[in-house]
Amino acid sequence: MAMFSQNPIMNGPNYSFSDTPKVNAPEGARQHRFDPYTDNGGSTLAIAGKDFTIMAGDTRLTSGYSINSRYHPKVFKIGGTTADQKDASIVLSVVGFAADGEALKERLDAICKMYRYRHGKAMSVKACAQRLSTILYQKRFFPYYTYAILGGLDEEGNGAVYSYDPVGSYEREQCRAGGAAASLIMPFLDNQVNFKNQYVPGSGEGHALQERPRNPLSRTEVEILVKDAFDGAVERHIEVGDGLQMMVITKDGIEEILLPLKRD
Amino acid sequence: MDHRPQAWGRPRDDIYGAYDGSYLQTTGPKQNTQAPVVTGTSVVALKFKDGVVIAADNLASYGSLARFTDVKRLRVFLDTSVVGFGGDVSDMQYLDRHLNELAIDESYETDPSAPDAGALNAANLHKYLQKLMYKRRNDFDPLWNQILVAGLDSGSKPFLASVDLRGTAFSSPSLASGFGAALAQPIMRKYAATEEDAAKLSREDAVKVVQECMKVLYYRDARSMDKYSIAVVTKEGVELKEDEQLEKQSWAFAERIRGYGTQTV
Amino acid sequence: MFRNNYDNDSVTFSPQGRIFQVEYAAEAVKQGSVVVGITSKKHVVLVALKRNAEELSSYQKKIFAIDEHAGIAIAGLTSDARVLSNFMKQQCLGHRLTYGRDLPVRTLVDMIGAKAQQNTQQYGKRPYGVGLLIAGVDEQGPHLFEFQPSGMTEEMVAFAIGARSQMARTYLEKNLELFADCSREELIAHGLKALKESLVQDRELTIENTSVGVTGFSKADDGSTKVEQFKVFDGQEVNGWIESVADDKAAAEGESMEVDG
């Protein structure tokens, strides 16, 4: 009888705490475990033009079905000399888990600032892109749960967009959508930016069809594309909406544009 | 009866099944808080023209038991900001001690002839708490709270922001934690959908809206209470009232509720 | 040959109650070229005389930006100063990250004071061989601090450290009342005049050897006050200021001729 056999001499359980049952609660018992991640929704989008890059993101912050905030920017200027980033030339967008995104942004910004302090010049987008990959990879086993996109102008002054997965794989691209509505926006971009599935009318049939030649889009065209992409995403995804934040990076600096989106 | 000390005060095995004593083990990997125990429910807050109103009831629950009925969940920081805590009460008390320490350290740094200049404002405090909460989540030792910080920013404009146990931080003209996010936010957003709307709200109206929210929460949130604390933060300082009673309750609506309980029609 | 038994380390007092290593470190500060700092109600400026080890070498930097709102001027061992500068930069970045604000200047200065003091009380350590003037602004206004290798820090209205700095200090003392209401430009001019007092015979301020650092409050477009980012001015940027304090026009022109050559 377990009830009466607590005496060690009788080979029963001991009084020591280490003699308490080692197993967890029996089956069916509730076990609460801390989940360090949440998905805060939202979507981002970046398109590189000939001599500009546009980075955009909606400003809604959700958790589950709740809207936590209608204005929580996902697109940030990085690496200026001051906290207000007025002379910055690189833009980072982060979407996914907001706290990780914030931490990632601040870490990259601090690194850019230290780079400037040590070398007396701003970091290039290329260098910054490589460094961001390293930061993400260093946390390979407890990742920053974010889909980051870095944008700016490369050494030749061409628009540059680098996109990342949460553990640091990255590549330079013409355009990329990230976050909740990425799967809604990306095919639209494939068609409208890279002219996928567009052919020259009357150029033949089947494989003989000629693809529509790709030509770089103008800034106004891209701005309209971004707006349309987000209007579409808002319509079909509950986590996207409220406001559209756009950063246009040109050789003259970064212009920030804020437009309303549906708040439903 | 089982006389072993680890069995004291435990539910009887023969009635409730084997007790999960695994948490008493001192060997094996270190384990941190995995669940809140004594908890506070919603905190609600609303910005207005020249400040912020924030409120929380005075109840600390132990599961569904209304365990402590006089727990103040609004804390004043440096006479300039108010911090409202939802979630685990012991973690709240830890944070309160920590913030007191911070306030003392901070007052050594500031010039006594101009105590307002240079002290940590609500925006600074919120940033700090966000870093603290995020660090604890990274260590897998979270402080199980959702926190609202109300006060003024460096430009003396109303400031209201939230941070939770994962370090997620955000700001909005009105904020509510816990059940309030579902019940109080829609009410507050009617009056202050945008920052511009909030900047037009008078203090009296803002207080009225928040009181209304507390009432609705008491009607519908089973872990709430009719005794609450409310604070108004403006440039002039903090006015905190900790023993408020919900007034003009009307439970007439309860009659019409169908579909829970035992009614058959 | 045996002169002093009490200067082998920085942890031993002499019978007179002195710590020679710390005093020698203070001497290193006096070997460094002169730097001057002045505050007004709105601004704080640092001006420095840069030296080149030889004709062929470049001039050693004297003023460093630490953060948006603070900078330092150094006199003594530049390499020791860099250690302190890096430390201060890290602290400022860290503070901004956790609190979202500028690190208050006094807190910053107290940090390096404490750091330097430790070196005077632990066996095997050496005091920093550098003195600093720390200029910065925070909510309480512009500040100027002096830092010595002993770990001593003190807030100043105006001060000068480094070789022949006594002459600059005499100038500052004479004009003390004027500084509070000076404009940004006037304050820089006073700084340069003080610096000139410390020059050796036949030496002049040139765009090569003069460095200026400024921070303070400026009016923003909307009328609110904004912190003017701490900036170091070198080379052509300081030309106007040097000319404005030239003894006479001819001398200034003669100097710039020499520079061009």
From TrEMBL, chain A:
Q: What is a single cellular component term in the Gene Ontology annotation?
A: proteasome core complex
The family database entries (SUPFAM superfamilies) matched by this protein are listed as:
N-terminal nucleophile aminohydrolases (Ntn hydrolases)
InterPro entries, alphabetically? Answer: Ntn_hydrolases_N (IPR029055), Proteasome_sua/b (IPR001353), Proteasome_suB-type (IPR023333)
Keywords, sorted A to Z: Cytoplasm, Nucleus, Proteasome
- Domain of life the protein comes from: Eukaryota
Instruction: Show the Pfam families listed in the entry.
Output: Proteasome
Per UniProt, subcellular location reads as: Nucleus
Q: What is its main location?
A: nucleus
GO biological process entries: proteolysis involved in protein catabolic process
The record's listing under PANTHER family reads:
METALLOPROTEASE TLDD, PROTEASOME SUBUNIT BETA TYPE-1
Protein name, as recorded: Nucleophile aminohydrolase
Source organism per UniProt: Cercophora scortea
UniProtKB/TrEMBL annotation, chain B:
Q: Where in the cell is it found?
A: Cytoplasm; Nucleus
Statement: the UniProt record of this protein carries the keyword Oxidoreductase: no
Q: Mind telling me which Pfam families this protein's record contains?
A: Proteasome (PF00227)
Looking up InterPro entries in the UniProt record yields: Ntn_hydrolases_N, Proteasome_beta4, Proteasome_bsu_CS, Proteasome_sua/b, Proteasome_suB-type
Main location as per UniProt: cytoplasm
* Record's keyword terms, sorted: Cytoplasm, Nucleus, Proteasome
Q: Which GO terms describe its cellular component?
A: cytoplasm; nucleus; proteasome core complex, beta-subunit complex
Q: Does the keyword Cytoplasm apply?
A: yes
For this entry, list what GO says about its biological process.
proteolysis involved in protein catabolic process
Job description of the protein: Non-catalytic component of the proteasome.
Q: Which family does it belong to?
A: Belongs to the peptidase T1B family.
The name under which this protein is listed is Proteasome subunit beta
Q: Which organism is it from?
A: Cercophora scortea
TrEMBL record, chain C:
Location in the cell: Cytoplasm; Nucleus
The Proteasome alpha-type subunits domain covers which part of the protein? 6-28
UniProt cross-references to PROSITE patterns, sorted A to Z: PROTEASOME_ALPHA_1, PROTEASOME_ALPHA_2
How is this protein annotated for GO cellular component? cytoplasm; nucleus; proteasome core complex, alpha-subunit complex
Determine if Nucleus is one of this entry's keywords. Answer: yes
**What SMART domains would the database entry show?**
Proteasome_A_N (SM00948)
Name one process (GO BP) from the record. Answer: ubiquitin-dependent protein catabolic process
Nucleus listed as a keyword: yes
Keywords on record: Cytoplasm, Nucleus, Proteasome
Q: How does it assemble?
A: The 26S proteasome consists of a 20S proteasome core and two 19S regulatory subunits.
- According to its UniProt record, which protein family does this protein belong to? Belongs to the peptidase T1A family.
Please report the name of this protein according to its UniProt entry.
Answer: Proteasome subunit alpha type
Species in which this protein is naturally found:
Cercophora scortea
